[in-house]
Amino acid sequence: MGRWRVKMNLSTLETPALVLDQRKLDRNIERMRKRLAGLGVGARPHLKTAKSIDVARRLLASVDAACAVSTLKEAEQFAGAGLHDILYAVGLAPNKFDHVHRLRSRGLGLSVIVDNAQTATLLAAHARATGDRVPVLIEIDCDGQRCGAQPASAGLLEIADVLGDACDLRGVMTHAGASYGCFDDAAKVAMAEQERAAAVGSARALRAAGHAAPVVSVGSTPTACFASALEGVTEVRAGVYMFSDLVMAGLGVGSVDDIALSVLASVIGHQPDKGWIIVDAGWMAMSRDRGTARHPVDQGYGLVCDLAGTPIGDLIMVDANQEHGILALRAGSGAALPDLPIGTLLRILPNHACATAAQHAGYCVVDGGSELVAQWPRFTGW
Amino acid sequence: MGRWRVKMNLSTLETPALVLDQRKLDRNIERMRKRLAGLGVGARPHLKTAKSIDVARRLLASVDAACAVSTLKEAEQFAGAGLHDILYAVGLAPNKFDHVHRLRSRGLGLSVIVDNAQTATLLAAHARATGDRVPVLIEIDCDGQRCGAQPASAGLLEIADVLGDACDLRGVMTHAGASYGCFDDAAKVAMAEQERAAAVGSARALRAAGHAAPVVSVGSTPTACFASALEGVTEVRAGVYMFSDLVMAGLGVGSVDDIALSVLASVIGHQPDKGWIIVDAGWMAMSRDRGTARHPVDQGYGLVCDLAGTPIGDLIMVDANQEHGILALRAGSGAALPDLPIGTLLRILPNHACATAAQHAGYCVVDGGSELVAQWPRFTGW
Predict the structure, then answer these.
(1) Does B179 touch chain A (CB under 8 A)?
(2) ipTM for the complex?
(3) What is the rounded CA–CA span in Å between residue B352 and residue B329?
């Protein structure tokens, strides 16, 4: 009997395409799992980077595992796959109350966050009307970057009072987005402690005022990777570590070799006078994210690798149009421009995995090499 | 008999959502139609901004109309709706030759572009092997911004020679991307002339060498809007004018009032000490495009309007996370921060319509007001 010998390979794909190396994914997942176990803290991985049920299956030990999402669409999709302990980790708009209630009415254990008394008042009224004591975490502002009630403040206690018995106040959550500006390892350690202290102190203030507040939820990938201790924290939310990206590598959170995500592109032209190589992956494939623009090493729109995933000298995507990427040596490089003929396939590492993945309908999965071992769909939207 | 009285309105939608005002869309389409008719030149509108069959129906008089696309996915989708004169206006990668041939074998009049002899050699060999004389335009570099053979150069003639009889050489095309840096109206007029001259001169050089080259295709929205004459040009490709955006308005190509696209968002929080209002539309809804960053007026991630679409003082989205937008007054503004309670619905005008639309699965269509008159799907991917 003959056997099928056709193997799908990255070299057989049309470009651009999103490539995910499951070997690096698994390594990144295992590293974080061990780290959090070592710190004696629970995990609530954020699924907003992956937005993929296949990735969630590799990440979570069972459907009983906790996770966080950034949209109700994610909550619906992951609930459809069996997950039932889901935190919607974006401050709730009133026009989503009914949607949250519908999902909870179907048996989904969906919890939400609130950071102000006005939303809390509206949510408590809605909860009283439906009789659904929705579980709530109060969001704490640990670093002045975005949302959140001030730690252990009168405002925090007011929110808890307003929620009253109408909702199930579970505790507090915070996210140290400022860790993305911490290039020094000591600064990341300090930011992790700042994040921890704001959350734990706020939970204590709630408990001192008579609220139960059993949950203390923190997390960003840099602080999760650099926290020296997480006493009083019950769970860590981090997401981008699974795929990693050039922003993480530039921050010293893992290395370029840890980046599991890349965009496959073809060389379609050259402008030799300018030292440019043109590829058919522009910002539509890479996203417009320029997260390394203010880093010590600016990676442009992405760092260029060969088909095996090895970076090519100082070659980066210096500019991007909708479907065109312009590759050139980074400013000041002494390297020679590589000879990459028309049709050469390249893999371009992204600045920001969340943004780049969002531009694609699915992952072309490899396992360390360039052979295609699976195709995993992903979802987008709200 | 009772009648249904429920009217869908923007105020009944969950946020974020992409809103398209068909009244402004129609006005923008009609203005460009009249302008090109006045210049006595044909139109080949670029559908890469809209990626919507419903928008194409409003734009094009019939399925016989010419159009341009930026992906083969667009070609397939629009061919499925009946369009059959489609230019794939991105330099062709060899791994797409088979796909182009498949589409052409189904009767689609798909033409392609080439800007170098190496691709031309590969394409001619493929065309000889299939017997399909694919129509080709040679791309000209009119402004040193991206791709293209040098105008009227030996390289241009070499491409034509290499294509030989294997392909159907139809002429030349160019795109003055540099027009996006022309803030002065005289500079836009001059750039339009530079674009025209490069294309017409290249077509003349081809004809002088014995090639037919009947097609001379130019276009960008700024040059299409400011060209004083287009002698020798047969068709204009422009796309973003249909929706317009803050980049166009900042360039003086139309006004803010012409922008047909916006993102509906809800206020979800405040940080009064910082003068911040937080909404549930971040870069996932707006895109990471910062196209006005180097404009005289930096609009951040977008200009904030009320539900009726009227800009609110100097309120812009100064920063964006994945699902959070931070609104604040632009630097130096003397305006007072408006009082926008939790749940307030806002419409945020985008920097770049192509990038923002690409973040959404469809358009919530209004007709001048806030009543929802239709929902139009759009497509993404390759």
Answers:
(1) no
(2) 0.97
(3) 20
